[in-house]
Amino acid sequence: MNSAARIEAFLEMMSAERGAAENTLSSYRRDLEDASSGIDGGLAGAVAADIRAYLDDIAARGFASTSQARKLSAIRQFFKFLYSEGLRTDDPTGTLDSPKKGRPLPKTMSEAETGRLIDRAAQEAGDAGLGYADSLAALRLHALVEVLYATGLRVSELVGLPVTVAQRDDRFFMVRGKGDKERMVPLSAKARVAMKTWLAARAKVPAFADSPFLFPAASDSGYLSRQVFARDLKGLAARAGIASAKISPHVLRHAFASHLLQNGADLRAVQQLLGHADISTTQIYTHVLEERLVRLVNDHHPLAD
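^ thats the sequence. predicted structure below, dont judge the formating
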């Protein structure tokens, strides 16, 4: 059975009948030709054991589970085509399981690193030697970092905060998150002070004074872009002696959740604070709970070493 010809026929069908984009066709071609070259006798005549052996081989070669799953998906599509066209009387992929996709643990920061980052932001915000523009930027960055670590907000929620959040002195405020759902989030005393200091500086900027946003900017949205904040945060990390590659607003959100759990918070409470609709999303942090339980046993069990 001529595998190369069968692959070409499959790609023609994907283009003509399904309108597959050029990039999609190229991806299918690469995956199918790689499989065909890795199977004795070619792909078109392969049986289930041949395909399983090929998948085992690419796993051993270090391909990620996502790449393995993509390749298997292409092979499945190919054999469905052969079966529907009467070129095969069976589909050898029917009994094959998809590779398990491991969920990567979120990147986070230690409490010491987070403390260093926030201390550096506070130090720069209080630096009387800075020029006007640099001082304004430092005050804004300090407020952003304090609020993010105090609340665990998504970066889109943070940069779009209304100015009314800083005008009150409440320990909690309501934020509208994904799915237009509202949730209550806490504000630490330090975060409230940093916001009020920024608010006082912001009020002296004529272009910002009437903005409904806490962190206004000359952008289409009217508030600071996520990209600008992410860039400023990386710069702050570098100045605090932390590798900027490991820092992002999302990493600081993960630090908020991880540090709460490490210090005894309940997983359900963290789910509500993060605005996760489903507890399964929050369960990426179960490794933190496991570490805490091990520490608890080792520290308090009478027979622990």
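The mean pLDDT is 87.
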